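Hey, resending since the last one bounced:
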Amino acid sequence: MQKLHVSYSPIARAVLVGLTLSSLVACGQYSADEQANVDRVESQQQNESVKQTKPAQRPQQDQSIKAVHPIAKHQREKRAVSQMQMARTSNFAAAQGLADSSYYYEQGNTENYQKFSDLSVVAVAEQPVSTFSADVDSASYANMRRFINNGQLPPKDAVRVEELVNYFSYDYATGNDATLSIEQPIAIDTLLTASPWNSNNQLIRIGVSAYKADTSIRPAANVVFLVDVSGSMQSQEKLPLLKQSMLLMLNNLKASDNVAIVTYASGTGVALPATSVKDKHKIVAAINGLQAGGSTNGSAGIELAYNQAQQGFIEGGINHVYLMSDGDLNVGITDIDELKHRITQKRKAGVQFSTIGFGTGNYNDHLMEKLADNGNGVAGYIDTLHEAQKLLVDQLGSSLHTVAHDVKFQVEFNPRMVSEYRLLGYENRQLERADFNNDKKDAGDMGAGHSVTAIYEITPVGKPGLIDPLVFQQQKQNKMAKPQVNEALAEVRVRYKKAQSQASEKYAQRVFSQDLVDFEQANNDDRFAIAVAAFGQKLRANEQLDELAYQQIIDWANAAKGQDKFGYRAEFVKLARLTNTLALQSPVTPQPQQLPELEYAVQPLPVTLPARIDANNEELSQ
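The structure tokens again:
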């Protein structure tokens, strides 16, 4: 039987391929590989067609001009529409996520801050007890300073009032002329003064001082630096500043201390195993050899750092891991809660964990603070070498040598004397009332020489407040006896554990109305601390201080600088003045980027034969 040979012209072959491709697209039954094969066949058919129809003497065609097959053009336009729709959907989801997320993202970068609201005014008749954990972190202040020095007001959620206040040291009295020691590591001091921004209210300042041990007799320290050397650390204010900071701290460690360095980026490594500070040249060489590059596998680095801490573990000594990073742990983290749990376990085993932040653009403040909290360490931020001097040299003994563990505050207000109160700051340090007596509940630690300041604003009974009294509680309140002479307004209670102790101890002190001091008569420390607290609230746009001007805060702080040995208070006054200037500028709110609207040409509907007949009949009838 003779075989039948059928040949197709190039044009017929192209039409056949086009019809086949159209059928597959309509049915959605081909894969990406099949699409590539079809495109390849189509290209070959087009090439053959061009070759067969090309005239012998045809001039060379411009190679920058390429013919587009109608089906390919249709697919390209379809993909463009699809991508535009996906982009719109993504932007909408991102906007929704910003509204619902517990994080704050600064526009134009990926800096990450925990979102929280200021503590509200509380009626004493409904909730007379306030409980919270101590906080000795200072990261918020240094980060706030970085923003202002760069000509920007900081994001609201980057400002934590208690960290601004506790950035400065205060010389509080120990009470009853008691001398602080390892056996009595803390003391409470209180002040009652008029609120300078609300004539109807008063302020209760609580100051707790920790025993300042002689650094020369502190236990030996096993220090592990966990250094982020990923690509995001290349800028001058990150790894170069980090290395300078490490060298400053190294010069203030003792010969009996050990130092190890673990690095992490795409991979992890031990840049320096546990080495005695006596061999300082080896440590210096390891620090100078640090270079940035790669992505960030933070979780693997933390595990390796703990392994090094375990190998150099000093029984009865100080074992401390310092994470030094911009906080951009973007690879290797699958469960942040599991990571925090791991740090908590190691803390219970005797290894503390602190975080030191660097740089701008992708600073993960939220994560760095949480990790330090779980590790009973300190969350700091270094924006200048002067801050490195303060944090890692001047306060080295405080960060390394803990004298009081799990420090908790509890204040009970007398409803016969106080109608309302609000705590300034400590929003993310709140505890349940029962947590105060629960020794298993973790809280902040205080190092040697640390001080912790907390300020309440109260409304005395009889003064106008913000909360109406409960209707059905009035009879009960009327039966309450009148206040006695010099009756206490509140009782301040502090619970803490001594070093190496599992059982806590309680210290209590009462605040009496007769102790009231005019604001102008308060000492420099108190007036300065109140000025800083007011500044923090203004940065957070707290409505309670809407009528207070920055200039008034500047005047208070400037008049209360005192001796100011290192110039930190004078620097604050300069920051407040700059903030006042920035706040007076007209705020420019960047408008969200709008995606261009797609323009669709109106396509005529296909006219069928019956429709044509109907149209003709209608036209004839008219």
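The radius of gyration is 34 Å.

Sorry for the duplicate.
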